[in-house]
Amino acid sequence: MRCQCLQSFGLVSGCKISGSKARQTMDITDKAMMAAAYRRFGKRALDLCLCAPLLLLTIPFLAVLGFIVRFGLGPPVIFVQTRAGLGGKSFTMLKFRSMTNQRDSNGILLSDDKRLTRLGKFLRATSLDELPELLNVVKGDMSLVGPRPLLPVYVHRHTPQQLPRYDVKPGITGWAQINGRNALDWERRFEMDVYYTQNCGFWLDMKILLLTMIRVVTRQGSSPSDGRATSPEFLGTEDINTAQENTAQENTAQENTAQENTARKNTAQESTAQKKAA
Fold first, then answer.
1. Distance separating alpha carbons of residues 151 and 231, to the nearest angstrom
2. Is the pLDDT reported for residue 205 higher than 60?
3. Main-chain dihedrals φ then ψ at residue 112, nearest 5 degrees
């Protein structure tokens, strides 16, 4: 029976294994089965056990925070946006708004840094703007821990290596959030997202939740490293690589041109010196 289970997982081709190798193979299988069970049942149970009571306990606080947002930033209090969830499917994400709706003379929204107020910066730095996402977790669109939900348009901009980030539900916090958060570039974030999907488990989730509380208190990585108010739009890894290649080619061309000009100048100087000597 055990051998049949191993064969079904593709870990062995037959029953002729023995000793320590067999035990190691069985241990790997057990861990894989436990991880699969946690992802399918345990993770959702953990979300509900932690999230539902937390949501009930924080209702008075959420009401006060909503009141502050309403009079500090204006209506609407809740920012509603479509994001990509499990399998890249769209869902409606809820957050406390952290920006104003200021527009220029042509009716176009101002840049994020001009619309982000001191209150908005505080909400983002402390992650208080994320609290309404507890409703998304209870509903089942999100999990407490997972890759951060991104805009649906980003799904088609990923490389095949980055797409596994959508194999689990998006989370309020995640592996990337405790390892640099917004200070990371997009490629590094996606690497950490994929790492999480490949190693998702109970103890890793507990570690992430614990470290998240520490990061929120210390406000580490709450802002992009380049000083922007928000992260830049993800245009796709291929576009970035192409831009880097073009820049490298331009630099090479400039260096070649400079070397040619220097060689011509030296040749001209040598010719002049020879004429004078003659």
1. 13
2. yes
3. -55, -40
Would you say 161 and 194 are in contact if contact means Cβ atoms under 8 Å apart?
Answer: yes
Decide if 23 contacts 30 (C-beta within 8 A): no
- Check residue 14 and report its DSSP letter: S
How confident is the model over 32-62, as pLDDT tens digits? 788 888 988 999 999 999 999 999 999 999 9
Better pLDDT: 275 or 218: 218
Compute how many other C-beta atoms are within 10 angstroms of the C-beta atom of residue 5: 14
For the chain, the distance separating the N- and C-terminal CA atoms, rounded to the nearest angstrom, is 100
Residue 123 to residues 81, 97, 219, 227, 255, Cα–Cα distance (Å): 17, 9, 11, 17, 48
What CA–CA distance (Å, rounded) separates 181 from 225?
10
Give the integer Cα–Cα distance in Å for 99 and 178: 24
- Under 8 Å between Cβ of 198 and 237: no
- Domain borders along the chain are 30-238
Question: Do the Cβ atoms of 132 and 78 come closer than 8 Å?
Answer: yes
Helix (H, G, I), strand (E, B) or coil at 196: helix
